[in-house]
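From the pipeline queue, job 12 of 40. The input is one protein chain; the requested action is below.

Action: predict structure.
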Amino acid sequence: MTPAAPVPIEYRLIGPTEGGGVGDLLVGLDQRQGRIRLQALISEWLRMENLVVLTGSGTSVSAGGKTMANLEKEVLATIEALPDLPPSIKPIIESRKNAVASARAC
């Protein structure tokens, strides 16, 4: 009796390949191997500290998104509205708001 062939993984992970192209990084892995690879990647991503991703400069303006300048303005307003904001943070926010206003005036 021959063992059953491994079932291909049901997920795809698209990214840069060894050859410099773009492809499925899980191709050729069975369900178990693919799941282990995905779990390792997700675990690594979750251990990243202080990671913030801000997109702006038009990546989603047509769908109501913000440009980078407007995004910073919104982030500062959100931080400023926090009820437990330490007083030492307010001068930093004001400084950034002034810098943004000065940049727009140029």
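Job complete. Strands lie at 14-16, 22-24.
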